[in-house]
Amino acid sequence: MAFCLGVTKLYAQKEFDRMSWSKVALRMPAEWYASDQAAAIAETVMAYQTEIGGWPKNIGFHRLKWKEGDKITDAGSTFDNDATTTEMRFLAKMYESRKDEKYKDAFMKAFNYILKAQYANGGWPQFYPPRTDNGVMYSDCITFNDNAYVNVMELLKDIFNDAPCFKALSLNDEVKAKARQAFDRGVQCILDMQIRVNGERTVWCAQHHQETLAPAKARSYELESFSGGESVGVVFLLMSLPNPSEDVVAAVKGAVKWFEGHKIEGIKVERFKNEDGDPDARVVPSAGSVIWARFYDLDTEKPFFCDRDGIKKNTLQEIGRERRGGYGWYTTAPAQLLEAYPEWAEKNGVAL
To answer: N or C: which terminal CB in the chain sees fewer CB atoms within 10 Å?
Structure first.
């Protein structure tokens, strides 16, 4: 049961167990980050920071009780599933509340990790150093999946803009300049990776080859494609740039045109549990609904779906229950982008 100490609410473990790590790291009441409870979690976070500076993914640090001598995971440092950027933002909150230099030191170690991980062409891999074990052969690809790339870019932008979330760190001009340089190279890499068809700009794949920048395969059912999902975050990032260059404007316009041309009307996805209690999904008619597929074939530009055998199918019902119910094959995210586009275009003098 939760209890209070002064004005700061503290939390019982059973309450933490119901929370996501991102909520605890980023969205607790401001005064909580000054508590000893938060400090104890921060010790666990810093204990799990790898030697190179990043963090492994999918660890609920608020549910762990680390003590000296515990084995730390050897899963490797990554930007996947919000890893590393979430821990950095948490440490910034801790420093703002407690002004302990160890939090800033850990933050800066992670910042330097981001700089080390960036390729010469401006992109970031999913893991750095890349992993080749456990079938993660795509870990060195430049990765938009799960907003890995965009999360890094947003963090760098907050650093060089001296955003409120990092203001207490009092980062010096050299750090801000390095963040800006890395960000600008990241923007250029985004522009270089945009898929073109007959000279026309379209969208991006969920991951691109780290050298050729061509669309790349990830897991067996995540084939090279036009991405109807991950591309949305990329476009929103480009739209956030002040005084966008002609190349940025062209990239946004091309992507918006592609999304307009590839929307699917009149259907929605219905999730349910089958007679055995297993998750499943089906496509059903829905008047007025607009949706996009997660993957579109690079040749036909039509949606496709896959089981773990990597064989493309034309409809969701053609793949097995496990992948059908256990993966997000459709998205409505582009609708938000199309809604925001006219205001962006007007603000930047772009003809619709």
So the answer is: N
Identify whether the C-beta of residue 223 lies closer than 8 Å to the C-beta of residue 310. Answer: yes
Q: What is the signed CA dihedral for 162, 238, 337, 284, rounded to 10 degrees?
A: -110
Q: Which two tokens stand for residue 344?
A: 């962006």
pLDDT tens for each residue of 228-254: 999 999 999 999 999 999 999 999 999
Which stretches does DSSP call E strand in the chain?
3-5, 8-10, 142-143, 196-197, 200-201, 207-208, 226-227, 264-273, 279-293, 295-296, 305-306, 312-313, 330-331
Contact between 150 and 233 (Cβ < 8 Å): yes
Quick one: pLDDT band at residue 66, thresholds 50, 70, 90? Answer: low
Place of tokens 């760190």: 169
Tell me what pLDDT residue 76 has.
84
β partners of residue 293: 330
